[in-house]
Amino acid sequence: MKADARFLRLSKVFWAYVRLISEQQGYTDRATHQVKVPSFQDQVRSLMELGMVSNGMVDEKGVPSAFGQQLAEYFSYRAKALNEVIEPLLMDAQEAKAVFAETRRRLRSRIAIPMNKQKGPKKQPAYLTGMVNMIIHDRCKDIGCDFDPRALTRITREGLPLRALARRVDGAFPSTLNPLAVWEIKEYYHTTTFGSRVADGIYETLLDGMELEELQQNEHIYVKHYLILDSHYTWWECGRSYLCRVIDMLHMGYVDEVLFGKEVIDRLPRIVEDWIDGLRRNERWRV
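Request: output the structure for the sequence above.
Response:
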């Protein structure tokens, strides 16, 4: 899923309103298991409850300003995207296992697949990571790709270190040295709660995005950044508020695209073709 162009390149002030209102109102309706669209009155009341004024949201006549209307449009868009588009894309363990097996058969892939971090009967192939790796390998086996980086992502200029990301990513194309693209994979098929480790995964992606934003702004070097996630139970039943944060992060520009569950099957091959075309056009930052 790409960001909606209407909500890109908005000010940090806009996102402060979104975060504060969302936190105060709550992200979801527990009765319907749907992402909530706060009314304009609820938005204004949220700010008042936080001891803030709502002047930016209303005009002199007390009706929603252009800024207030934009907030309302975003809350409506975010809820509709999650409730109607994204939720059906998320898979449980059994569906992911079946899609993984079908992908392996279709691509006739023989690459090694990493295992998840579970123990006992839950220890299984990392289905989402396996699908991602097989799809990318199928299209760029002659180019190369780092599916398991054991080093920090680093950007150089004329052989000299320019930047090094704070943490290791889950994949880099074609390598962690001056990559064209990096990605994070968050699959939690066998977890039974939305624990701190899952929440930390979102903040890690946010950190990567902020570092890449700084790199682009100050050094004019653009590295594409992707988030790939799945598990209907973990993300939808337990973590809908964090899915809202993911959509916010996407529109804040901290990730270029988010792939949800089954979306990797159709969308990822086209993304990889774009990477390959970028290499051919010499878009990757060279040493």
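The chain has two domains: 8-89, 93-119+126-280.
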